[in-house]
């Protein structure tokens, strides 16, 4: 039997319009960046993945892409060794930073991830099976997502207002949530906090509770509060939110909050790599970990994370960043194959203004996406859209996510709200 080999890899950075969504470190720039990775084999197949597109990450992807020719797309352990070797040579093992909130000490997981996902897509295409089958099979055929609410301005300065309008008051947040629930059918809601004083964000959560009495709610201030403030908020929102996400920075701070409340604490900030799990478990710092295959080294390593959280009796949820359909497909396959992923997953998908996958395979019905039934990830690229969005990347002027720099170009006095209240 002849075995297919990787013949070439294409990495295409793309840009799409992003609304002025506010967070603890600033505001989203007018353009969000992603990169599409296509791995071609000598047997004529192509596997797809989507990843970050900050320029340092692109350079690392390019270095691996140049070295991976001839590799067996089924040898994922060997592929990871190759990524580790290439990055060691290129960067001396330096870490990675995305948007001021996600910093990891090693770039191996973030760089390996799209190569692994694209190889799994290839394996699925070659075997005629969906990726979910390669991850152990389907435990749910629809994956529920949470409506992701943001404080936001009506539009980027100097531009027309976008279709979502301003959201700075509880009523405006409720109106945004109404639009998410009515338009997409979401059965739970997450509010991105860390923008306004905690009393105002609690008031917004209470307004959401009054409007949507049955929907699970989450609040995520990305570490904007001290442990003391976090405990006050936890007391106020006990019984109102299903979890508080990263109220305060760091494992130690989260452990202090955890020791003083019964409220479930979740994180995608103090546990973002395997090395963070032992100290977080020992300190009982969090009860829920938000997985993210882009950050945790691909789909199979995220499944490993799921097993570890299960072992320690922790819950598992899923984090997102601004993303397009290829990422959404990978998230859906992963969630569909992960028995203990019982929380609705995060997604920024409603905020995106364009996509580059052909329509039809990833529709939201009642806030859930059915697992695509095609082979591999079950999505195909719309080549015209890819070309257009690559052109947008070339001309938009954004080369890395810089929420703080962009905010400071509008408000010179702004400093990140991390630990502010
Ligand atoms: O749950 C989270 O922490 C996120 O989704 C992080 C993102 O960077 C979010 O804050 C955003 O898009 O501004
Ligand atoms: Mg978070």
TrEMBL record:
Q: Which reaction does it catalyse?
A: D-glucarate = 5-dehydro-4-deoxy-D-glucarate + H2O
Q: In which pathway does it act?
A: Carbohydrate acid metabolism; D-glucarate degradation; 2,5-dioxopentanoate from D-glucarate: step 1/2
Q: Which domain of life is it from?
A: Bacteria
- EC number in record: 4.2.1.40
Q: Which residues form a coiled coil?
A: none
Give the Mandelate racemase/muconate lactonizing enzyme C-terminal domain ranges: 170-264
* SUPFAM superfamilies linked to this entry: Enolase C-terminal domain-like, Enolase N-terminal domain-like
Q: InterPro entries this protein is in? A: DgoD-like (IPR034593), Enolase-like_C_sf (IPR036849), Enolase-like_N (IPR029017), Enolase_C-like (IPR029065), Mandelate_racemase_C (IPR013342)
One Pfam entry name = MR_MLE_C
Would you tell me the protein name for this molecule? Answer: glucarate dehydratase
